[in-house]
């Protein structure tokens, strides 16, 4: 179908060139309406016909150009980004470990160590790590 439209586009372009060159210019170089009033059409009728033909051929040329541009893109997938589920199911970078999920609000911040098989006592939370203390700025070295 695109090949057929390209052939029609080429024929319309050639016809447009011919119609433009047949129009009477200021110098009358290739104009065909230069004879007397005894021809098939008068000079004024020829001018109106060529002007109208130029406009119609230009409109057809532009419409074919836009249609060919649209058809040349080929089929496209339609995606809805709002309703799409998240794509990643594993780690973002292969080979890197996945981080553990965040604790729920109200859950203890420290990890809980499970009870050993020989000990029936309830699991005890492991002590939370002490917050890091900022170190004092280093004293400048005297020379």
Compact description:
This protein has 143 residues and is mainly alpha-helical.
Helices, strands, pairings?
Layout: H1 2-22, H2 43-72, E1 112-113, E2 124-125
Antiparallel strand pairs: 1-2
Helix pairs in contact: 1-2
Describe the protein's architecture and organization.
The protein is 36% helix and 3% strand. By secondary structure, it is mainly α. It has a domain at 2-27 and 43-72. α1 packs antiparallel against α2. The protein is elongated, with a radius of gyration of 41 Å. The N and C termini lie far apart (86 Å). The model has no long low-confidence stretch (mean pLDDT 74).
Low-confidence residue ranges:
none
Percentage of residues in helical conformation: 25-40%
Largest sheet features? 2 strands, antiparallel
Number of DSSP-assigned strands:
2
Q: Give average pLDDT, whole number.
A: 74
Shape: elongated
Structural class comes to mainly alpha
Task: Offer a few descriptive terms.
two-stranded antiparallel sheet; 143 residues; 2 helices; mainly alpha; 2 strands; single chain
């Amino acid at each position: 179908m695109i090949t057929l439209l390209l052939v029609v586009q080429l024929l319309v372009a050639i016809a447009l060139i011919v119609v433009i060159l047949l129009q009477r210019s200021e110098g009358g170089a290739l104009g065909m309406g230069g004879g007397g009033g005894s021809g098939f059409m008068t000079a004024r009728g020829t001018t109106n016909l060529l002007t109208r033909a130029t406009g119609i051929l230009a409109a057809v040329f532009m419409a074919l150009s836009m249609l060919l541009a649209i058809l040349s893109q080929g089929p496209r997938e339609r995606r809805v980004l709002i309703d799409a589920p998240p794509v990643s199911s594993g780690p973002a970078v292969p080979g890197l470990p996945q981080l553990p999920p965040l604790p729920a609000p109200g859950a203890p911040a420290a990890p809980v160590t499970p009870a050993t098989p020989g000990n029936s006592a309830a699991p005890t939370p492991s002590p939370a790590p002490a917050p890091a203390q900022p170190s004092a700025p280093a004293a400048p070295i005297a020379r």
